[in-house]
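Format notes (please read before filing issues)

Several people have asked whether sequences and structure tokens are stored in separate files. They are not. Every record keeps both together, in the order shown below: the sequence lines, then the token lines. Line labels are part of the format and must not be stripped during preprocessing.
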Amino acid sequence: MSDSVADQVKDRKKWTSKFEKWPALGRVKVEVPSVEVTVPKLLLLSDKAEADCDLNIGTVPKIPKKKDYKLQDYYVRKLLCENLPHANFDGNSTCPTSLTETQKELLAILSNYSDLYFPEATHERWEEIRTVYTLHAINHVLKTRKKVLNHNGKISKAKLEKRHEDLDCYRDQGFTRPKVLILLPFKHTAYRVVETLITLTLEGKKSIVTNHKRFKQDFGPGSEDEGELANKLNRPDDFNEIFRGDTKEDFKIGVQLTKSSVKLYAPFTSCDIILASPLGLRYVIGDSFSTTTAADFLTSIEVLILDQADIFMMQNWEHILVLMEALNKQPRNIQELETDLTRIRLWSLDGHAPLYRQTLLFSATPIDHNRALISKCMNLQGDCRYCVTRPELILSRLPGMRDPDVRFNYFIQELLPQFRSSRRYHTMLYIPDYCDYVRLVRYLKEDGGTSMSTINEYMVGQNNKVAKARSQFFDGKRQFLLYTERFHFYRRYRIKGVRHIIFYDLPIPTLFP
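Then the structure lines:
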């Protein structure tokens, strides 16, 4: 790809968009670069040189056929086709062995290597979505591995025959081996992805899963069934699903795929797929990744998957921003790489790797941060965005309310005096952002004219303080209760005594079914 073509792809103002009606997914917005040329790219299933291969930029995915549907039409490897029925059934009658219509349409988009933003990945759909993107990730690794092995054989044969071979024909690798990065919020979600991966890859074969016992001890469910405990506490279904297993947020694991085995805990320099939490990966690359080699293993990521991305907002979105900045950068010290430089793709050497990376983002609800992330991606195949249909509402919009200063001034000058003058007790102030919470607490304490209780996410393990704040609010000893969204996400308490509620900013809709 020439620099001029790359600049056209990066200019999203020149992209064209249209809306399509898909039978299962519904309304989908398709955006593609409007560069009407063919550019060289090393195709996964081709043995030609880069200069001899053509790929049309911005290929629009096609709606799958209802009759005579075949996975082979999407270049899915035979092994995966045979094992898919086992992976797509976990003993739950709601999860059929054959692909659902939603899975077929998602696979059509994924196989086209378009970016995808799907904000309807609720807990009822986690199983079918996880199966599809895991299938796609493994298929991508197997296709690229087959190509590398074929080229290795041809190069070895040429050396034995002492025949000169043009090595430009065999540029089939990135700077490093990892090709797929899957970001997940909790250990138990990573456990389910890895188990699905093992079933898809090794089901029905005499094969080896290295370090499987260690993996089950580290990531698997414990002796106590946390799901049953959550049900006893009368929590909603989505809460039970989110917190049903190990909810540790600091983890990372490399997975290496071979012909007859799956190696877990493979080093990042020699693995094919990385599963990690944003926090776990942030610990690895640190804050100075731009001046060190700590993030070099992320230079050649070709498929990026963010599952349950709405939960990342409840953890720390800054980790996601740092990781996105570290992806597909040129390695700091190319001489230390184990990869043969003559086998590295030209578009990687030219710094165009971000244009060849596919980003898949699944969320339970539309969030501005997720939309912004997808909008900054520059995949040459474009992107597909599921359009959420909401009920028609009449809204009164206040200009500038997304500005924290404007929102704060409006609250202290307009809303707060009204509630104080009318002596409206039992008022909950629901605050999504912790920075806004700190600002309001400081102001109300300094002002001194308002009695309040406070509950925030840093009180999750302080049950006595939480109980005291709830009791004072319920008994009317405190007029206001300042309550943060993250605490509500992790505990989902039923706050008694609320007669008035003020949403300081838009809440995440899934927390209020």
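For reference, the curators noted about this record: Confidence is low (pLDDT under 50) at residues 39-54. The longest strand covers residues 16-22.
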